[in-house]
Prior knowledge:
This protein is α/β, with parallel strands linked by helices and 256 residues long. The chain has helices spanning 19-25, 29-36, 73-83, 101-108, 125-130, 147-158, 206-224, 226-232, 236-244, and strands spanning 10-16, 40-46, 59-60, 70-71, 89-98, 112-117, 134-137, 191-192, 195-196. The protein is built from nine helices and nine strands. The relative contact order is 0.12.
Amino acid sequence: MVCLIWVDEMRIDVFTIFPEAVGEMTTLSVLGRGQQNGLLDLRVHDLRMTATDAHKTVDDKPFGGGAGMVLKPEPVFGAVEASNPPKPLILLDPGGERFDQKKAAELADLDGFSLLCGRYEGVDERIRNSLVDEQLSIGDFILAGGEFAAMVVIETVARLVPGVLGNQSSSTEESFDDDLLEYPQWTRPSDFRGLKVPEILVSGDHVRVEKWRLAMAIVRTSELRPDLLERRGVSKEELAVLDEFEISIHDRFVSE
């Protein structure tokens, strides 16, 4: 008897004035393989598709004056309505919710979602208030548009879709899993210019290796991203692992 497991594709639609650029990026590496294997359905739409003037205009000067241009409501509403994209429709905007691994996991649990790439000085407020469902920001810095932000979101979410990475453990042993940075890694040769791999990693004791990796992840996070560890805390069980390797951390990281 052959048992068949049906896996639904995750559909992600992107609305942009640079569809060629986004489309090319979605064919590379993990995203390309995910599509070839029927796990991802990535669709890129040109915001100019429903613009009616000869120049396919999607922007105009802001009412009240000021520098720059603003994305017009007609072509954006038209492109979205013509495509019937999966919800939620998310505007990539500096005023949005901060995108992180937890948010990526939430999106990965959906059947699909859509991304609207902002441009110029922003979007007409009617797009923000009456068309999109939510807003996301990938960080406190300035980009010319939302295309690279869209790729950050797509790449991060796609890695969490079952089967996309092939080895599913890869997505659960990376930085920010459980609010910890990933433990340090080494590969062959074991001795490079006198710099040697920690003996525990070549000991063959897999249980102890896993404990050591947890300890190293906690130490690395405390050194490089103490804000994550302060928010997360370190449990009594984790303190016992640290004690096993004679490692101490600051009391402020210890969970009550």
